[in-house]
Amino acid sequence: MSEIITVGLDLAKNVFQVHGADGAGRAVLRKKLRRDQVLAFFGDLPPCIVAMEACGGAHFWGREIGKLGHEVRLIPPAYVKPFVKRQKNDAADAEAICEAAMRPTMRFVPVKSEETQGAAMVFRIRELLIRQRTQAINALRGHLGEFGQIAPQGTANAARLIAIVEGPDSGLPVDAIAALKVLVAALTHLEAEIGKLDAEIFRRAKENEVARRLMTVPGIGPLIATALAVLAPPPETFRKGRDFAAWLGLTPRQHSTGGKQRLGATTRMGERSLRRLLIIGANSVIIKRHGHAAARPGTWLGGMLMRKPPMLVRVALANKMARIVWALMARGGVYQSPAAAA
């Protein structure tokens, strides 16, 4: 058997598929492995390139296989799909992963450490609790609407809904009050847990040197700064700020041909949470534009607000903020407004 240079590993819960290729790309190994056989198999294999699709469990396997002396490469699933030949099965997927890993222009995902994954978990859990809080508020508003009790939308008005349920003269049926109090208790618990996570995020923002520097950018507070410091890949992963903005999905989608540039909506690729947070941060700058020097008449943002639709300006500003973030993370320093820099 020829020497194995590249291995494509198709991950699963229990049954893994391995595809090995030599230096010329010829298949020299096809094998199925049970979960408890994976590390023993790669422990007996000479050091080589092991490629996997980037997913939730890929970072764990990347760390473990990397400890055995192999070079681990994680590939975004969208970049593997074009290499799948006709039929979709585990063997074809492993072969496609192996072939994609050998491409000289392929882009890879850095393997995350346990500390990085643990630090990112607070944001994932916070997002989940916020979605559950929104569901509880919407359910509470909808049920109260059945009895003619109306309150404006928004999290800030949840207290009015709770006051209606707990009020002695609400006029609600006794059975309905007992059921609605279950929603009120769940909503109160969610608010308390979200508050604890917010306090933890603010604490991390004060302790993290990168987050403190990012908070000097207008529109970036403790939450966004900490999320960028934890969830964003290392700045050296990207050649320039535009590449980072493109990874976030804040650049237009291209469908150009024949020398004609055709740009569409944003790609919405990359890290969804960071993209959403940057757009929210850009929106805060626009809402408070009268207090920001960067939004005064005659500035880039001031001109954009006069010429372009509001949502387009928000995304454009988020794109600019992403480039500034990459520059600060890659080169150090703090943000200086164009007027101050001049």
UniProtKB/TrEMBL annotation:
Signal sequence: where?
A: none
InterPro entries recorded: Transp_IS110-like_N (IPR002525), Transpos_IS110 (IPR047650), Transposase_20 (IPR003346)
Q: What residues does the Transposase IS116/IS110/IS902 C-terminal domain cover?
A: 211-290
Tell me the Gene Ontology biological-process terms attached to this UniProt entry. Answer: DNA transposition
According to the entry, every stretch annotated as the Transposase IS110-like N-terminal domain falls at 7-146
Q: Report the GO molecular function annotations.
A: DNA binding; transposase activity
Q: Which Pfam families match?
A: DEDD_Tnp_IS110 (PF01548), Transposase_20 (PF02371)
Family annotation (NCBIfam families): transpos_IS110 (NF033542)
Q: What is this protein called?
A: IS110 family transposase
Q: What organism is this sequence from?
A: Paenirhodobacter ferrireducens
